[in-house]
């Protein structure tokens, strides 16, 4: 039974007394400020106070510890080698955050988007209500939206914010209505095309005693490129820098001088280890990507940038346009890390002190599984797992070893090949589209398939819950006509254009489709056109081919604009159904082996 969504939000008042900083820190601040600026009188409040900011990003509803390589973080060792450390799971994240807050009277917790969407089955099956409940228990104060917050459209995002049972599936627990987020979701650069107003709050002011910190939340301007058209229908996504600068000025007019931007856009550190120093040999030297240009242009009024989207870990100093030190952070993804930042707040100027001596130096910390689980999170997981169990535990097929997907850093991923093969098989019959090949977007592969059993199903068994975690979006399969020329253009758009030129997105391809990717070249030239073949025959630019893909790609998602030019579309089964049907052909005696991932020849 469905219920009408009702607006609901619990406002938490923060009214505690301030604490003093050490005499040494006060002296450093006094030395950094104009003569006579420091307050006098031994009984008076200290001029400055340290505010702890805990932050994370790209949680994606990962309540249980993620499996495979998605459930580890890479730690750089003293000898230069790296070590994989198991991490993540909301039971451990809760313990980590609660321990980190101890001894900090001033502590705020913030996030940089993608808290929901692309979620494992435990959360996704229930439209991410379990995750919002968990985030409330974590005492999250504020989060920007990310692109995945729009997976189910703006109406569903508002329901996540304000509560109410799902309009189709109704209330999941008898006698309980979903109450929505107790934290503030911010969407400063997402406006309604009709009203021209932000669809959610653009800013949030966190206050405790006489300490005020303003937060501005934005998602990447390119969100429409990475979300289905239905998900962003009726919305306009503005420039990140212009939006942040606009609202920083507005916060200043309100008397808020300390400002943090929560930005669902990120960077790419030169090393994947969470403890890599991205400020060596100089400030910000070890990071690239979209966030660098954003950081260099965001107004100096903004004191720190908490970022996300790229699922990378970094804590870099990228000076603001005035040359002042400013930290830019990201805590990887899936709750495997959190960032602990100290913001030194000056009560007289009401601003964050960002001198070279007192610039906040954030630290990314591992959410270790070698610590007690938070009992309330264990209860939450158990409760929702009980509701999901009849569906989640059903076996779908068998594998002979780990099959790397999200955790693979290679352009061609074994699990990507497997998914593409499943999609081709589901759409190859004439009555189902007559597909000759299938292509799959890499971002739609949300996990690995792990050989080791997660529960009592047995090693090598793939359950519905595990297959759902790999393919959670339930996109419908499309089979379309593309010319050979359009197909080649699509391959070139993997490595060129405004969306993928700086950060390539390599499509996963079905068996029989092969080509060479020459990374020694640049842009579209990286695709060796003469090497593109289907079943050994060169692709004919003038010939028409039947190509299977999910509806996201068919709509031009991920920058593949040429795919929107298709003709003769036939809509098929959901991608998860195609994947599970392929898995169902396997048996315990004849499990699926990891594909060789040899369809794309990469020249480096």
Textual characterization of the structure:
The chain is of the alpha/beta class and 604 residues long. It has 2 domains: 48-375, Purple Acid Phosphatase, chain A, domain 2 (4-Layer Sandwich), CATH 3.60.21; 394-602, 5'-Nucleotidase, C-terminal domain (5'-nucleotidase,  domain 2), CATH 3.90.780.10. 22% of the residues lie in helices and 24% in strands. The chain contains 14 helices and 30 strands. The strands form 8 sheets. Strands 1, 4, 5, 6, 17, 18 and 19 form a 7-stranded mixed beta sheet that branches. The longest helix has 18 residues, at 375-392. The radius of gyration is 25 Å and the shape is globular. Mean pLDDT is 91; it is low at 1-43.
Task: Give structural attributes.
30 strands, 24% strand, 5'-nucleotidase,  domain 2, Purple Acid Phosphatase, chain A, domain 2, six-stranded mixed beta sheet, 604 residues, disordered N terminus, alpha/beta, 2 domains, seven-stranded mixed beta sheet, single chain, 14 helices
